[in-house]
Amino acid sequence: MKGGPRMADQVLGFIGLGQMGRPMAMRLLEAGHKVVVHDRVAAVVAELVAKGATAADSPREVADRADLVFASLPTPAILRTVALGPDGVIEGQRARTFVDLSTTGPRVAVEVAAGFVEAGRAAFDCPVSGGKSGATAGTLALMVSGPRGDYDALEPVLKVFGKPFFCGEKAGSAQVMKLCNNMLAATALVASSEAIAMGVKAGLDPAMMCEIINASSGRNSATQDKFPRAVIPRTFDFGFTTALSMKDVGLCVSEAEGMGVPMVVGSAVLQMLGVTAATYGKESDFTSVAKVVESWAGVEIKKP
Ligand code: NAD
Question: Residue 93 — φ and ψ, nearest 5°?
């Protein structure tokens, strides 16, 4: 974006308007940016157009009309096609910068960065944490890696989404950071399911258990947020699918293996997510892992 239009005049592109992308694109519109959007699902595109965005028919068309293009997509393979494939962002004439907000792992981040550098452009991997509620409120944590020289111009736009943390220039560094975080978050969910199922079977109130754990050394993101919000009320609607969590922990375990880092616990967590997907479907909310533990333990985690 160096030498490009002033930030306020920049046209921003957004590809992938799902649980995360939709509220993030909405925030850009609310902040007064011009936004060009694209998704495979027409209804969500129409919704954003009604709020002031313009629609594009392909990733290339987004990059023909925007200076800076964001993507929030489900898998590394989809991200690769959208970024580098036929009719992809790389073929657009206008965009100088591409920012991947998805969790896609370091391998594809390196590939995408190399493709954009070769085309004389910049690519950043910028996975986010904080879920749909953080995306809506603009309180996400954003982990960013990419060329430092282009980062300064990008940072003010990222602040519309939350708090950016620059992880380094090496492509994929931010993706590694995000995989470490998500492996820990999934581990907390699985381990808390086991601990709380045990407590409930012994007659303890799960809400009280969370309160005590959260004032003690076992506190974690599941006992602080997922159990009170989506497990104990039996809604299982935290807003993150089992498929996406399997993708994240799977990427983490396979990257760790390639690096010679043991991940005994991470592998067990991945197995638990696999059982959850087989039992409740890949599109189930990943808090459904608690139901797997419940069925094995013969107990329900709910208010007595
Ligand atoms: P999602 O499945 O809700 O959204 C993905 C969107 O991409 C959908 O609207 C889908 O129609 C669209 N899409 C898929 N293929 C496409 C293509 N070829 N071209 C255009 N659009 C396409 O997923 P999500 O929950 O919003 O997650 C997006 C990314 O963010 C994932 O990588 C996920 O791991 C990551 N993430 C999600 C959360 C969360 O809480 N949901 C939190 C942090 C990070």
Answer: -90, -20
